Amino acid sequence: MISERSIERKHLTLRTRIKRLARKTICFSKLEKMHDIVIGLFINVYEFGLVI
User: Fold this and answer.
1) Pfam families from the xrefs (predicted)?
2) Could you give the CA distance from residue 36 to residue 43 in angstroms, rounded to a whole number?
């Protein structure tokens, strides 16, 4: 069973490690496709340890 705390911890990790998800930052994706690629790569490395 996944607890709310573990879900919130993952969201916090995403926001702190991927500046594209944080507010008021100059690091952003101009294309939605690039945004999806960066987040997908991070999830692969963070969750599965896979480097593509």
Assistant:
1) DDE_Tnp_IS1 (PF03400)
2) 11
Beta carbons of 35 and 29 less than 8 angstroms apart: yes
How far, in Å, CA of 25 to CA of 1, rounded? 35
pLDDT in tens, the chain (52 residues): 678 888 888 888 887 777 777 766 677 778 889 888 888 888 888 888 766 6
Full 3-state SS string of the chain = CCCHHHHHHHHHHHHHHCHHHCCCCCCCCCCHHHHHHHHHHHHHHHHHCCCC
Q: Which whole-number Å values give the CA distances from 21 to 2, 18, 26, 27, in the listed order?
A: 23, 6, 11, 9
